[in-house]
Amino acid sequence: MAAVEVEGLRKVYGDVTAVDGLDLTIDDGEVVALLGPNGAGKTTVVEILEGYRRRDAGTVRVLGTDPETGGREFRERIGVVLQEAGFEELFTPRELVRLHAGYYPRPRAVDEVLVLTGLEEKADARVRTLSGGQRRRLDLALGIVGRPEMLFLDEPTTGFDPSARRRAWELVDRLRDLGATILLTTHYLDEAEHLADRVVVVDHGRVVAAGTPAELATAAGLAPVISFRLPPGTGLGELPSLGVDRRQVGDLVEVRTRSATADVAALASWALGRGVELADLALVRPSLEDVYLDLVGERAGGPVT
Ligand SMILES: Nc1ncnc2c1ncn2[C@@H]1O[C@H](COP(=O)(O)OP(=O)(O)OP(=O)(O)O)[C@@H](O)[C@H]1O
């Protein structure tokens, strides 16, 4: 059974159409990353799936239930990490995790949650003394304490230092191994690439692409790149004819290729024939960032017109 089934979802705020006929299916146990520029509609979609926001049209099933009418029983089966949550500043993480554990029928042990989220050292400090990243870890702790079958993470690692981000990734990997279905939104493409089985790119409230990063690269027609440094004293014109387009920055040459094996072979035999070394020779497949920018990049982050 699919954990999430969405068809024709629409949400309008005044004259802004935030979600505009969105379809989405997430399989049981799958980790899916929702990507898209600011204002694309990601948070609105996630909040509708969580049952925190009403839709204007479309059908939505999460764990077989309509979130709008699922009530307490539904909420006990999901975990939610919102973009911004407020805490009781005078409580400690241990107290808050214990309090939230009481809301669920089969909670995780409080100590286990504190360890999983790396909050052991701050377990008994008042929340108002926690750093931004530590508060975000507390958000995560409260999201997983109920042992959710489906976990929603809205920009879960914003504000994390690199080692905290790695730990959060390990936590998501563990939760996946334990069988949770996870939907996360993120602006970190390396995070999506690392964590997600599948990415779904949303723009203007619709899905514009979905698949594994490799599938998206293929669908976008993006070719891999051969890169190397020009041997000293060699001109670009002396190279064999390679690839579909090439560019040079300093002595670094990048060749986009649709026939990687043949082009690498031609380049290598050219270098061997001349007895020169091709420093930093590499074949790089398009990154998720290349694919993303190809799909929505021209508008995202560009000047407002
Ligand atoms: N409560 C609201 N009232 C009015 N408009 C809203 C409301 N919430 C969101 N919007 C608008 O709906 C659109 C989608 O917003 P949403 O927050 O879902 O996007 P997002 O993809 O999550 O963006 P971000 O990456 O910046 O978090 C935006 O144009 C936003 O201004």
From TrEMBL:
Q: Which InterPro entries match?
A: AAA+_ATPase (IPR003593), ABC_transporter-like_ATP-bd (IPR003439), ABC_transporter-like_CS (IPR017871), ABC_transporter_ATP-binding (IPR050763), P-loop_NTPase (IPR027417)
What biological processes does GO assign it? response to antibiotic
Q: Which residues form the ABC transporter domain?
A: 4-229
Where it sits in the cell: the answer is: Cell membrane
Q: Which keywords, in A-to-Z order, does the entry hold?
A: Antibiotic resistance, ATP-binding, Cell membrane, Membrane, Nucleotide-binding, Translocase, Transport
Where does the source fall among the domains of life?
A: Bacteria
Principal cellular location given in the protein's record:
membrane
Carries keyword Cell membrane? yes
Topology class, membrane: Peripheral membrane protein
- Keyword Lipid biosynthesis set for record: no
Query: What does the record give under GO molecular function?
Result: ATP binding; ATP hydrolysis activity
An example Gene Ontology CC term for this record: plasma membrane
Give the matching PANTHER family.
ABC TRANSPORTER ATP-BINDING PROTEIN
Q: What is this protein called?
A: ABC-2 type transport system ATP-binding protein
